[in-house]
Design brief:
Layout (H helix, E strand, L loop, with lengths): L1 E5 L3 H11 L6 E5 L3 H10 L3 E3 L11 E4 L3 H13 L3 E4 L8 H14 L3 E2 L8 H7 L4 E10 L1 H4 L3 H6 L10 E7 H7 L5 H9 L7 E6 L6 E9 L2 E9 L1 E2 L2 E5 H16 L6
Parallel strand pairs: 1-2, 1-4, 2-3, 4-5, 5-6, 7-9
Antiparallel strand pairs: 7-10, 8-9, 10-11, 12-13
């Protein structure tokens, strides 16, 4: 299988390296807005080849978005319109209800699939199963250190100095729809949880800044007809991108392996 990879930042490079080691992957077609910056990396990567436009999607059996919500909004309709399978990492792009429904329609019409890895939080398997019957509440509490939250739109708009805190502080509490907008690179997992459960407006998200945090902590709390579950995940930050969790990268690589090998265990 040929894989088209959109985005060659820290996560994209991790995925490209992982894909190069998979027997089922024949070639990795890599597209990035800064081709000069990735030339040396792609040159050192077995099975890797740069392409100069999204037209390269036509060659691939699987498209992987590892760039941004904006990139996801561009590539999803294009790839699904070609009947391609797409794995989306910037799942926050699906917060737009009209856009999401359009992608779902394209997938059904053209036969492609769009897939979202479980990401940086444990417990999504239980949430997925529980959602087969009535859910009462779904809450995600995310606790991160200052470096992880630097530059988030909410932080910039409010003029918050993330390095001024001496004690843990709740910065935000609201719907997942607002959380994804305010923290687009920090709480992608909130979008995944919303899609699996009660939706973006009924899923509640709390963002906590902890100046002593050396890890990204996510606590998922679900209540419904099945009973209740509480799953806590303590993630080390991804080494080259503290805004995301190491487990998020591992989850994407694991999902990629399952897709290219067409093996689904624990669905």
């Amino acid at each position: 299988m040929k894989v088209f990879l959109l985005g060659c930042g820290s996560i994209g490079r991790y995925l490209a390296t992982a894909a190069a080691g998979m027997e089922a992957v024949d070639e990795i077609l890599i597209y990035d807005n800064h081709p000069d910056d990735i030339a040396a990396f792609v040159g050192s990567l077995s099975k890797g080849r740069t392409v100069d436009s999204l037209n390269g999607i036509s060659e691939a059996g699987l498209v992987v978005e590892a760039a941004s919500q904006e990139a996801a909004r561009e590539v999803l309709p294009l790839a699904l319109g070609m009947g391609k399978d797409v794995m989306v990492l910037s799942v926050g792009a699906l917060v737009d209800d009209g856009f999401r429904r359009s992608c779902q329609s394209l997938a059904l019409e053209k036969g492609g699939r769009f897939m979202v890895p479980s990401g940086a939080v444990c417990g999504v398997d239980g949430l997925r199963s529980a959602s087969a019957e009535e859910l009462d509440s779904v809450e995600l509490i995310s606790t991160k250190g200052p470096k992880s939250l630097e530059g988030a739109p909410f932080i910039v708009e409010k003029g918050i100095d993330v390095h001024s805190f001496q004690e843990p502080a709740e910065l935000f509490r609201g719907s997942a729809r607002d959380a994804v907008r305010h923290f687009p690179k920090n709480v992608n997992v909130a979008a995944t949880v919303s899609l699996l459960g009660l939706g973006f407006d009924r899923t509640m998200v709390t963002v906590v800044l902890d100046p002593a945090a050396g890890e990204n902590r996510h606590e998922l709390v679900v209540r419904g007809a099945f009973g209740s579950l509480r799953a806590e995940t303590r993630n080390l930050p991804f080494p080259k991108n503290p805004a995301t969790s190491h487990l998020a990268a591992l989850s994407a690589a694991s999902a990629l392996r399952r897709i290219v090998n067409n093996q689904w265990i624990g669905v």
